[in-house]
Design a protein that fits this description.
The complex is a heterodimer of chains A (116) and B (111).
Chain A (H helix, E strand, L loop, with lengths): L3 E4 L2 E4 L5 E7 L6 E7 L6 E7 L5 E2 L8 E7 L2 E6 L8 E8 L7 E3 L3 E5 L1
Parallel strand pairs in A: 2-11
Antiparallel strand pairs in A: 1-3, 3-8, 4-5, 4-9, 5-6, 7-8, 9-10, 9-11
Chain B lengths: L3 E3 L3 E5 L4 E7 L6 E7 L6 E7 L4 E4 L2 E6 L4 E6 L8 E8 L5 E3 L3 E6 L1
The chains are: A mainly beta (116), B mainly beta (111).
Chain lengths: 116, 111
């Protein structure tokens, strides 16, 4: 149980392109999903918290107009990297939290984004 | 914010031995603590969650302890196998349940 699917697994695109990444909880409902970014040899850094039916909350230093988050249903959150540039190249990972105070987050398999 | 330190970047161990990883934190003690496994190019996989009132938790060959006095969690892999080679991450929730991660310890089990 508690499977999170993330799509696509990798994207290569030209500078200036907008890229959408999907995160789905397959066998549970997630009122809260999270988006992380991970650079090589570093740990996960939280970018934003996505709440179903409301606006996402962004961590300090994360541009909300650059990283658009939509959580339209209890099983789907999307992250759109708008007008992507080479510095946006990274490994993006989503997670979904099972409802309840003391519950783990379950992670997708990540999206490798490369901007040329 | 919570500062999380995992004892070492890398741990090399002989197959069959026990690997022990340390996670120390500096500020408030969280209601629970989690351990994840991450393989290269993959997302973290949830392993164990231990609550503040639990001293020890086990799952197959894995064991986690949580000492709120020492502000420390230990993660043990017993009878280690080459398939256990991965990076192990300690994660603590903040008061609003966002997770903060340690830098991770990369375990290599040699046959």
């Amino acid at each position: 149980g508690a499977v999170v699917s993330q799509h696509p697994s990798w994207v290569i695109c030209k500078s200036g392109t907008s890229v959408k990444i999907e995160c789905r909880s397959l066998d549970f409902q997630a009122t809260t999903m999270f988006w992380y970014r991970q650079f090589p040899k570093q740990s996960l850094m939280l970018m934003a918290t996505s709440n179903e039916g409301s606006k996402a909350t962004y961590e300090q230093g994360v541009e909300k107009d650059k990283f658009l988050i939509n959580h339209a249903s209890l099983t789907l959150s999307t992250l759109t990297v708008t007008s992507a540039h080479p510095e946006d190249s990274s490994f993006y990972i989503c997670s979904a939290k099972v409802t309840g105070l003391v519950q783990p987050q379950h992670f997708g398999d990540g999206t490798r984004l490369s901007i040329l | 914010s919570q500062k999380i330190e995992q004892n070492s970047e890398a741990l090399n161990i002989q197959e069959g031995k026990t690997a022990t990883l340390t996670c120390n934190y500096t500020n408030y003690s969280p209601a629970y603590l989690q351990w994840y496994r991450q393989d290269p190019g993959r997302g973290p996989v949830f392993l164990l969650l231990i609550r503040e009132n639990e001293k020890e938790k086990r799952k197959e060959r894995l064991k986690v302890t949580f000492d709120t006095t020492l502000k420390q969690s230990l993660f043990h892999i017993t009878a280690s196998q080459p398939a256990d080679s991965a990076t192990y991450l300690c994660a603590l929730p903040s008061r609003d349940y966002k997770l903060s991660f340690g830098a991770g310890t990369t375990v290599t089990v040699r046959a």
